[in-house]
Specification:
The chain is of the alpha+beta class and 285 residues long. It folds into two domains: 3-195, no CATH class; 199-271, Alpha-Beta Plaits (2-Layer Sandwich), CATH 3.30.70.120. It has eleven helices and four strands; from the N terminus they run H-H-H-H-H-H-H-H-H-E-H-E-E-H-E. The protein has helices at 3-6, 10-32, 41-53, 58-76, 79-98, 108-127, 136-147, 151-166, 172-195, 209-219, 250-260, and strands at residues 199-205, 225-230, 237-245, 265-271. A four-stranded antiparallel β-sheet has the order 2-3-1-4, covered by helices on one side. Strand 2 (225-230) and strand 3 (237-245) form a beta hairpin.
Length: 285
C-alpha cells in the first residue's frame, strides 16, 4: 500500500488525532494551567471559564463549549470531518482532565516557550489528519465556506476577544505571556503543516526539453508540462519544462537536466501545498 493511501485511511487518521490531542492535553495540563496562563481558541476559553468559576474542570468546559459547535457542524460540514473532530474533542477532553503530571519549570518565559512548542506540536499533528480537535477549527471552516471569512482572520478575532476578557481574572504579565505563547503555538503549527508538505516547483529552460522530460518521467516517475516561451534576445520559441518534486528529488533533476544539456537554465521555487495525483489530496470539510 502506498504511503499516500495510508494517510487517508481511518487507522492512520485516528492515530494522528489521538497522538496530537494527547500532546495538546499534556501541554495544557503540564505547563499552561499550572502557571495560570491560557491558550487561544476554545481550549483557552475553557481554561478561562475554569479560572472564573472554579467549577467543573477545563476539559469539561471545553467539551461543553463544543456542543453547539457540533450542532452547527452537523448542518454545514462533511460527516467525515465532523466525526473525526468529535473523536479529537473527546480525546483532548480526557487528556486535559486525566493527565496528572506537571513540567518542573518555574521560569514563566521558559514555561511560555515550552507550552507553545508542546501545544503547537500536538495541534500540528492533528492538523495533518482529515479531522480536528473541535472548537475553533469547525467554526472557522463554516465561516470560510459560507461567508468567505478567512480562517486566520476569524481565529485572530476570537483570540483577541478572549484575551480582552482574560484581563478580568488574570494578571497582566500572565496575559502577555499567554499571548506570546499563542504566537509560538501558531508558528510551530505552521512548521508541522509544511514539514512533509513542502514541494519544489522547477522550471527548466533547455534546447533539449523533450529528452530531459522523458528522463524525469522515466527515472523519477514525475510528470511535467511544457509551457510555451520565447527567448527575449533570440526571439525563438522554446518549450519550458514545469515539474514539481520533493526535496530529495531536486539533485536528481539537476543531474538529469545538466547531464543532457550543460547550458540548461534551471529555476527552483518553494511551494507550500501541492494537491493532485502523486501528491496530497484535498482535505474535505
Amino acid at each position: 500500500m502506498k504511503f499516500q493511501n495510508i494517510t487517508y485511511s481511518i487507522p492512520w487518521n485516528l492515530f494522528l488525532i489521538t497522538l496530537g490531542s494527547i500532546i495538546v492535553g499534556a501541554g495544557l495540563k503540564a505547563v499552561v494551567i499550572p502557571h495560570g496562563m491560557i491558550t487561544g481558541g476554545f481550549s483557552g476559553a475553557g481554561i478561562l471559564l475554569f479560572y472564573y468559576t472554579k467549577l467543573l474542570t477545563p476539559g469539561i468546559w471545553y467539551l461543553i463549549l463544543n456542543i453547539p459547535v457540533f450542532i452547527l457542524g452537523w448542518l454545514f460540514i462533511s460527516r467525515r470531518f465532523l466525526f473525526y473532530s468529535l473523536y479529537g474533542t473527546i480525546v483532548l477532553t480526557l487528556a486535559i482532565d486525566f493527565i496528572g503530571f506537571e513540567l518542573p519549570v518555574k521560569d514563566l518565559m521558559l514555561a511560555t516557550l515550552a507550552g507553545g512548542v508542546i501545544v503547537g506540536a500536538g495541534a500540528g499533528i492533528v492538523f495533518r489528519s482529515l479531522g480536528s480537535a473541535g472548537g475553533n477549527d469547525i467554526i472557522s471552516v463554516i465561516l470560510n465556506q459560507k461567508f468567505g471569512i478567512r480562517i486566520g482572520t476569524y481565529n485572530f478575532g476570537f483570540n483577541f476577544i478572549l484575551f480582552i476578557f482574560s484581563f478580568g481574572s488574570l494578571d497582566t504579565d500572565l496575559i502577555l505571556y499567554s499571548m506570546a505563547m499563542s504566537f509560538i503555538t501558531s508558528q510551530v503549527i505552521e512548521y508541522f503543516m509544511t514539514l512533509f508538505n513542502q514541494r519544489k516547483m522547477i522550471f527548466i529552460i533547455s534546447n533539449n526539453p523533450r529528452q530531459i522530460t522523458d528522463e524525469i518521467m522515466k527515472k523519477l516517475k514525475r510528470g511535467a508540462t511544457f509551457i510555451k516561451g520565447e527567448g527575449a534576445y533570440t526571439g525563438k520559441g522554446k518549450d519550458i519544462i514545469l515539474t514539481v518534486a520533493n526535496n530529495f528529488q531536486i539533485k536528481r533533476i539537476e543531474e538529469i537536466a545538466f547531464g543532457i544539456d550543460p547550458d540548461a537554465f534551471l529555476i527552483t521555487e518553494n511551494t507550500f501545498n501541492v494537491l493532485g495525483k502523486g501528491f496530497s489530496k484535498r482535505k474535505v470539510y
